[in-house]
Design goal:
Strand content: 15-25%
CATH architecture of the largest domain: Roll
Distance between the termini: 44 Å
Shape: globular
CATH superfamily of the largest domain: Electron Transport, Fmn-binding Protein, Chain A
CATH class of the largest domain: Mainly Beta
Radius of gyration: 25 Å
Number of strands: 23
C-alpha cells in the first residue's frame, strides 16, 4: 500500500521499530550529521530530531532509507527483486497478434494507466497550507552543514523538477525530477549542482541554445552563452573558467521547482536512472502502484507533489554561474569548488509545521548505500534489455557504485566479455563505471570472496585487462581531466581456444550432490 506522504511513512517506520525520536537539543551545523553518521554505520534506525538548536518546533528526518529492511518497507515489497520482476514483466509484453490478444491486454493497459500522475486543486494540496510570496527565507528551515570543510549549508535530499524547454514555452516538454545538492548562499538563492551529464543540465543547455539563437556579435554576453552551449567544455556545465556571472538583463531563465519531504517512492524515484523518455512521476507511480498527486506551482509553470512538506519555486538564469562547494561527498572525499547555476527562489510553500527531510553522505556504508543497492536491482532488467547475456550485477558499496561493476554473463562466443564491457560503458549513467569485471554465470557476483577467487585465478593480466578512455563522473578526483579519463575492464571468464587459450581449462572443486545429501542428513548428529 502506498504511503500518502512523508508523515505516513514516518508512522510506518515507528510502528515497525525502525524510528528513533531524538529529544536532546542538537545543532544543525555538524552535530546532526555526526550523530547520523555513527548511527548509519552501525546499522541503526531512522532518526527524527525534534529539538533543533535555533529552530523551535522544527523536526529533521535522517537515515530514512538506511537499511535493506527500510528500503523494502519504503517500496512496500518483501524483496527488492520483486520490483525488477515487475519491470521484467512489463518489458516482456509483445504486440497483440489479433483482436482477442488486444482484448486480453486491456486490463493490463488499464493498470498501467493508474501509474500516471494526476493534478489536484491547490485547495486540496497539503503543500499549500502556507504560501509565502515575499519576506521568506530558505534559512527558516533547519538546513544542515554535514562536514567541517563544506562550503556552507546544503539541501541534500531535494526533488528538483525542471521541464525540457525544447518544445517551446507551452509546457509540453518532458519533466525531469532529479536529486541535486543545493548549497545555500542566502535566504533567497542557492547553488544548483547540475553535473553536465544530468538531464536537468541538458534542459539548462537547451534554454541556453534558445537564447543563443538571437545572439549578435554586439551582444558579448549572448555570444559567450552561444559558445558555451556549443562547446560543452568545462568540468561541470560548459563554462569559461574565469567567468562567474554576466549581467545581460534579457537573459533567458529556466524555471525550477524543488520538493522537500516527499513520500519515499517519490524521493527514491529522483535517483533512479530512468530511461530518457520516462518521467520520474510515472516511475514513482509504478513503485507506489498508485499515481502521484501533483499540484501547480504559484509562480512557475511546473507541478510538484501535492503532499510535499516544503516546496521552493524559482528559476536559474542562463547567464549566471557561481562557485559551489567544497562538499563532503559519497566518495569519502570533498568535492572541490566549481561553477554552477544559481537558483533564485520566487516563492516558498509548505505544510504547517513542516518536517525537513535530509541525508548525509560520506565514507560508506551510509544511507545512500542502501538506496544504491535498490537502484542496482531495478536497473538490472533494463541492462538485460540491451545486453541480454547478463545474469547479474553487483555494484559494491565500498566502490561508491560508479567505480566498480561486477557482471556475470552467459558466455557464448569468444570476446563476449569485452563486448559486454563496452555495452555497459554505452548505457546512460553506467558510462561512468571506472572498472568492469566480467565473470562466468556460475559465479555469484554478490559473494566478493568468490569473485576475488575467480579474478585472481582466471586472468593473465596482459591478455585479459583492457583499458579505454571515456567520460567520467565529475566527482572522480583521480581522473586525468575533470569528467574525462581512463576505464579498465577485466575478463575473468574461462578462456576458450578461439581466444588463444590452447590448454585444457581446469574444473573448479565441488563436492558431488549425493555426498552432500548424506552429510546433510547426519549433520545435526555431529555436534558441529
Amino acid at each position: 500500500m502506498a504511503y500518502d506522504d512523508l508523515r505516513a511513512w514516518i508512522e510506518k517506520l515507528e510502528k515497525s521499530g525502525e524510528l528513533k525520536r531524538i529529544q536532546q537539543e542538537v545543532d544543525p551545523i555538524l552535530e546532526i550529521a555526526e550523530i547520523t553518521d555513527r548511527v548509519s554505520k552501525s546499522g541503526g534506525p531512522a532518526l527524527l530530531f525534534e529539538r533543533v538548536k535555533g529552530y523551535p518546533g522544527a523536526r529533521v528526518l535522517m537515515n530514512q532509507f538506511g537499511s535493506e529492511r527500510r528500503m523494502r518497507l519504503a517500496l512496500d515489497v518483501n524483496s527488492l527483486d520483486e520490483i525488477s520482476g515487475r519491470i521484467q514483466a512489463l518489458m516482456n509484453l509483445r504486440a497483440p497478434d489479433g483482436f482477442l490478444d488486444k482484448i486480453r491486454m486491456l486490463p493490463m493497459l488499464a493498470e498501467m494507466g493508474k501509474f500516471f500522475p494526476k493534478v489536484v486543486a491547490s485547495k486540496d494540496a497539503p503543500c499549500k497550507e502556507v504560501i509565502l510570496r515575499e519576506n521568506f527565507s530558505v534559512l527558516d528551515f533547519p538546513i544542515l552543514q554535514c562536514w567541517p570543510g563544506d562550503g556552507g549549508r546544503f539541501l541534500t535530499l531535494p526533488c528538483v523538477i525542471t521541464r525540457d524547454p525544447g518544445k517551446g514555452s507551452g509546457g509540453g516538454g518532458k519533466r525531469n525530477v532529479g536529486m541535486y545538492r543545493m548549497q545555500v548562499y542566502d535566504g533567497q538563492t542557492t547553488g544548483m549542482h547540475w553535473q553536465r551529464q544530468k538531464v536537468a543540465a541538458e534542459h539548462y543547455r537547451e534554454r541556453m541554445r534558445q537564447g543563443a539563437e538571437a545572439a549578435t556579435p554586439e551582444n558579448a554576453a549572448a555570444a559567450r552563452v552561444a559558445r558555451m552551449a556549443e562547446t560543452g567544455g568545462g568540468a561541470s556545465l560548459p563554462v569559461d573558467a574565469n567567468v562567474t556571472a554576466w549581467t545581460n538583463p534579457k537573459a533567458d531563465r529556466l524555471e525550477v521547482a524543488v520538493a522537500i519531504g516527499t513520500d519515499p517512492a517519490m524521493t527514491f524515484s529522483a535517483i533512479v536512472p530512468a530511461p530518457p523518455e520516462v518521467e520520474e512521476f510515472i516511475i514513482a507511480g509504478f513503485l507506489r502502484q498508485q499515481p502521484v498527486e501533483l499540484v501547480k506551482c504559484e509562480t512557475v509553470d511546473l507541478e510538484v507533489p501535492a503532499s510535499a512538506e516544503i516546496v521552493l519555486e524559482g528559476y536559474v538564469r542562463t547567464d549566471e554561474l557561481r562557485s559551489e562547494g567544497p562538499f563532503g561527498d559519497h566518495t569519502g572525499f570533498y568535492t572541490l569548488p566549481d561553477d554552477y547555476p544559481v537558483f533564485h527562489i520566487t516563492c516558498i510553500t509548505h505544510r504547517k509545521n513542516p518536517i525537513y527531510a535530509s541525508t548525509i553522505v560520506g565514507k560508506p556504508p551510509m544511507e545512500d548505500a542502501w538506496m544504491g543497492k535498490a537502484v542496482e536491482r531495478i536497473f538490472l532488467p533494463l541492462m538485460k534489455l540491451t545486453i541480454p547475456e547478463i545474469v547479474d550485477i553487483n555494484l559494491p558499496v565500498e566502490a561508491v557504485f560508479h567505480n566498480l561493476m561486477i557482471v556475470s554473463i552467459r558466455k557464448s562466443y569468444a570476446g563476449q566479455a569485452r563486448k559486454v564491457m563496452h555495452g555497459i560503458w554505452s548505457l546512460g549513467q553506467a558510462m561512468f563505471t571506472k572498472c568492469v569485471v566480467v565473470v562466468d554465470e556460475d559465479c555469484d557476483v554478490q559473494d566478493l570472496r568468490e569473485v576475488t577467487l575467480r579474478v585472481a585465478n582466471n586472468i593473465d593480466p596482459e591478455r585479459d585487462i583492457q583499458f579505454t578512455m571515456g567520460p567520467m563522473d565529475s566527482l572522480d578526483h583521480a581522473s586525468r581531466q575533470p569528467g574525462y579519463g581512463s576505464k579498465m575492464g577485466i575478463d575473468a571468464t574461462r578462456k576458450w581456444a578461439a581466444e588463444g587459450f590452447t590448454r585444457p581449462w581446469p574444473e573448479m572443486l565441488t563436492m558431488d550432490t549425493a555426498t552432500k545429501a548424506r552429510v546433510d542428513a547426519i549433520w545435526s548428529k555431529l555436534g558441529l
